[in-house]
Structures are given as structure tokens and as C-alpha cells.
Amino acid sequence: MIVGGGHNGLVAAAYLARAGRSVLVLERLATTGGAAVSTRPFAGVDARLSRYSYLVSLLPRKIVRDLGLDFRVRGRTISSYTPVERDGRPTGLLVGGGERRTREAFARLTGSDREYQAWQRFYDMTGRVAQRVFPTLTEPLPTRDELRARVDDEDAWRTLFEEPIGLAIEEHFSDDLVRGVVLTDALIGTFADAHDPALPQNRCFLYHVIGGGTGAWDVPVGGMGALTDALATAARDAGAVMATGHEAVRIETDGRTAEVTYRTADTESVVAARHVLVNASPQELAVLTGDEPPTPAEGAQLKVNMLLTRLPALRDTSVDPRHAFAGTFHIAEGYEQLATAYAEAAAGTLPAAPPSEIYCHSLTDPTILGPGLVEQGFQTLTLFGLHTPARLFTHDNDSVREELLKSTLAQLDAHLAEPISDCLATDAEGRPCIEARTPLDLERGLRLPGGNIFHRELSWPYAQDGTGRWGVETRHPNVLLCGAGAVRGGGVSGVPGHNAAMAVLETLGAAS
Ligand SMILES: Cc1cc2nc3c(=O)[nH]c(=O)nc-3n(C[C@H](O)[C@H](O)[C@H](O)COP(=O)(O)OP(=O)(O)OC[C@H]3O[C@@H](n4cnc5c(N)ncnc54)[C@H](O)[C@@H]3O)c2cc1C
Description:
Elements: E1 2-3, H1 7-18, E2 24-27, E3 38-39, E4 49-50, H2 61-66, E5 73-74, E6 78-86, E7 89-96, H3 99-110, H4 114-133, H5 144-151, H6 154-162, H7 165-172, H8 176-184, H9 200-209, E8 219-220, H10 224-237, E9 241-244, E10 247-253, E11 258-263, E12 268-273, E13 276-278, H11 282-289, E14 302-308, H12 321-324, E15 328-331, H13 335-346, E16 356-359, H14 361-364, H15 371-376, E17 379-385, H16 397-413, E18 434-437, H17 439-446, E19 479-481, H18 495-511
Parallel strand pairs: 1-2, 1-13, 2-9, 6-15, 13-19
Antiparallel strand pairs: 3-4, 5-8, 6-7, 10-11, 11-12, 14-17, 14-18, 15-16, 16-17
The structure holds flavin-adenine dinucleotide (FAD).
């Protein structure tokens, strides 16, 4: 039995069904996919957007191969663009489009080759770590010492695993904008300062630079729903049964067999299972089993989806908007700006200049737009805002959402030659094609605890007290986590789904 039909639940279902097990997936929503789905959010408009998660890095090719998924990703030609005003002039940093162009862009912005060389050295280091750490994610958990030996680079280990990432960033880079671009990978879905001694920012950074053994973030062809659809097909073809509109409300177990009580719109029933894999969050697991809940999680991001009739022109005329928006477009993400935004939010107010990043899916993969929209030059835009923790929304989610959206778009507008609102398409009712989700919206819609996109704070990818052999174990031997809340969970990876399936198959192998 699998509680939750998010992409990880589907990965577990597909592996177990292919191994000949009898599998039932209970999903409370009307569709599977959880935070990895595509939808048409704008009435009467043929644009199928990745509604929540949008880029893929952490999904091992092994899972795609093992499950025979009909799913592809496409690399982005541009890694990032960060606009900035220097000496009263609009300019920016474009990373990507070839080594020569990137080197020139760094030199133009910073006045010398120094930052570019530091960049190369720093990301050569993370690249080496990626090659060594990424393959371990689908193996039984290494101990800390084993992983350290595998990394086999004491400087890299200290930089990424032991000291706040802010130290390394300040040591390697001197330009505030360059420092900010590096730091953002440590802050996606993670509310932390660059120097937080508990290192949640380092764990976030690590997961952002090891994916696929390279750290590249690719575009899922057809949108994130294409992945979930391929997974659901693989699970069904192997015999798994998918029950949507079925909410698990209780799990009772004696450690050998379990009973799961579920509710539909009009019934409540009980199903028995030898193993229960929980794709829902650790918080939800505690509710289901009646166990002590874990430390509350909290998300801190704003997610905005937009459909544009055209890409906006930039104030920095040296860059083509088709290049600037093809990669990650950083806004108000200078190093000092990030520190200020964090301090403001930690003190209980919305950041005055909310940091965010934007990317345009349709430039790399137009298949998510109907042919009419492609012909007219429409483009999608996804914005992911940082440093706005759930606690800032609790007193009035609707009005804080509106205020934050306004100030976030104002930060974008500051770098555009025309306001973004002039470029928004309208839906069949004449409303602008834009939707925004706060952490509280995500908690209500998807049951992400506190709106945390990773279900809980990310964990180190090595064994710690009580993490078990695969990092999916709970205190009940036949109840396992198979979602983002497992060790090495978080992100669109399928890793916890794979690992929970391996743990079950190992147990059954040992038992038979
Ligand atoms: C806005 C946003 C942007 C993101 N961007 C990216 C990105 O670009 N790239 C990336 O790699 N990651 C991204 N992430 C993170 C990533 O999407 C998640 O970490 C990942 O999708 C989690 O997958 P999951 O299958 O473990 O859990 P979920 O997707 O959360 O699925 C859990 C499922 O369990 C169901 N469920 C819960 N309780 C019950 C119950 N009692 N009974 C039955 N069903 C239940 C839920 O309805 C849900 O379908 C983003 C997340 C968000 C929210």
C-alpha cells in the first residue's frame, strides 16, 4: 500500500509492481503527481504549465531506464542572467552560451578575469563532488566517514559539509552580484542565512549542485506532468492500482501487517497490507500512525505562473530577452540584498525588495503551448520567490499574497523597458494570466507542511542516528517513508521512492 500518489509514490509503485508485488496507491487528490504536475490554470487558454516544480536535475537516469519511462529532458542553452544597475547604467551577467561569452560577460561586469577564474575553480570543485556523491543516492546510506572517503577531497568536504557556505562564497568571490548568484542555490525552499551554523543552506546547496553528477537543471519536455504521466503509466502497466480521491486517515500496524483506513467522498473502508509506504510528509505520517510529530517544517517561497503574449524588453539592451529568460533570471538576489531580505523576514516583515528567480519554459520547450499560442509568440514565465516564510502569511494570506506579488513584480519591472503587466496574456474571461501561491496555499492544496517544498528540512546524504539502511525507515518495521521527507528526499528525484521500494524488496528477499 502506498499512501500518496506524488511522483515518489509512483516510482515506488512502479518498482514494486514490476517486481511482482501487489500494489495499491491511495491519493487524496483527484489526480496523481503531487507537486510534480502540469495544469491548464488559465480558463480557455491552451497552455499546460508545470504548476509547482519546473526543472529537473536530481532524477537519476537509472530510474528512467529501469522503469522504461517515455520521458526526456532538454538542457538550457543559458545557465543564468542577472540584471543590475552599475554606475547608473543597466547591465548584467549572462552565464552560458559558451566559455568565451561567459568569460567576456564576467570581465565586462567585474573589470577583470578574476571572478570568472574563481567561478571555474569553484564549480570544478562542486562538479567533482557531484560525480562522487550523486551515484550514492540510490545505494544504501553511506556513513559520514564513507561518504567523506568517497568525496576524497578534504577542502571540498570542509567547504560543503562543515563550514557555512557563506565563508566559501566570500573567500572565493569578491563581486556582490556574483556572490549572490552562487548563494541562491543554497536558499531555494530553505529559509536560512549564508552563515547559519546549523548548515541548512549547505544541504540545500549540495542538492542543487550534485544532480545527475553535474548539477545541471534541465527542462522536462512536455512539462513536469509528462514525468508524472510516464510514471503513472509505468506503474499501471506493471499492475499497480491507482485510487485517486482516496484519503488515508489512519495506519495501524503490529510491525508485520498493517491496516490502512481511507476515506472517499462517500465511504470509509479499511485495507490490509504487508507494507505501507508513505509518500505524504513526515507530519502527515505522524497523524496517520498517532506517533509524536516531527519538528514543524516551514516553507518560505512564493510561486508565480504567468503566460505572456511576448517576452518583455530589457533595460540592459546588450542582452536579447530570449537569452536572458532562457536560463535562471535572478532578481534582487545580490549577496547583500539576500542577507537584508533574510533579516527583514526573520524579524517578521516582508522583504522590502523580495528576491526571486524566473525562467521561461517555452523558450526551451514550446510543446506545452497550443500551436496557436506558439505561432503568436506567447511564452510562459515561472517565478520562484525566496525568503517569505509561512509565518508572514498567517494573519491574512490573501492580502499578504497580493502585497508580496506586487512588490516582487516591481523588482522585476525595475529591470524591464516595459512593465510585465503589459505583456500578460488574458484568459477567456479577460483576466490576466497570472497565479501566485504562498506557503500557506501549498499547505492547503498539497499538504506540504508549512508549505515546505521538501516536506522537511533537507538532510545530509549520509547515515545519522536512527536513519536506517536506506533512509526511509520509521519506528514501525513495515511502515516506510517513500517521499521527500525521507533522507535524501526533496526535489523531483524519485530517489526516496526508489529507495523505499529497494528496502521492501530486500526485506521480502530476506524473508523468502
Ligand atoms: C512551488 C514548488 C516549486 C518546486 N520546484 C522544484 C523544481 O523546479 N525542481 C525540483 O526538483 N523540485 C522542485 N520542488 C520540490 C519538489 O516538487 C518536491 O520536493 C517533490 O515533488 C516531492 O515529491 P513527493 O512525491 O515526495 O511528494 P508530493 O509531491 O508532496 O506528493 C505527496 C502526495 O501525497 C498525497 N497525500 C498527502 N496526504 C495524503 C493522505 N493522507 N492520503 C492520500 N494521499 C495523501 C498528496 O496529495 C500528494 O499527491 C518544488 C516544489 C514546489 C512546491
